[in-house]
Amino acid sequence: CSGSSCLSASRSQVGIPPAPRGVPQIEVTFDIDANGIVHVSAKDKGTGREQQ
After folding, report:
1. What are φ and ψ of residue 37, in 5° steps?
2. Are 46 and 26 in contact (CB under 8 A)?
3. Where do the domains of the chain lie, and which CATH numbers do they carry?
4. Strands laid side by side in the 50-51 sheet
5. Whole-model pTM?
6. Distance of CA 28 to CAs 7, 22, 45, 51, Å?
7. Distances (CA, A) of 38 to 18, 30, 31, 35, 43
8. Per-residue model confidence as pLDDT tens digits over 1-52
9. In this predicted structure, what is the pLDDT of residue 3?
10. What is the model's pLDDT at position 37?
């Protein structure tokens, strides 16, 4: 994917609803475990919805 189409695809996989520019507040957390595996979670601060 390229440009905004890639971003749209990613957003739908996480379950973040579309919103006007500047409105969504997303907290993204990256954790690396002892085996070097990266775990990513995203939380919509407006709705409290979280996806890992």
Report:
1. -85, 130
2. no
3. 3-51 (2.60.34.10)
4. 26-32, 38-44, 50-51
5. 0.53
6. 15, 16, 10, 10
7. 26, 7, 6, 9, 17
8. 554 444 454 555 666 677 777 777 889 999 999 999 999 999 988 888 898 8
9. 47
10. 94
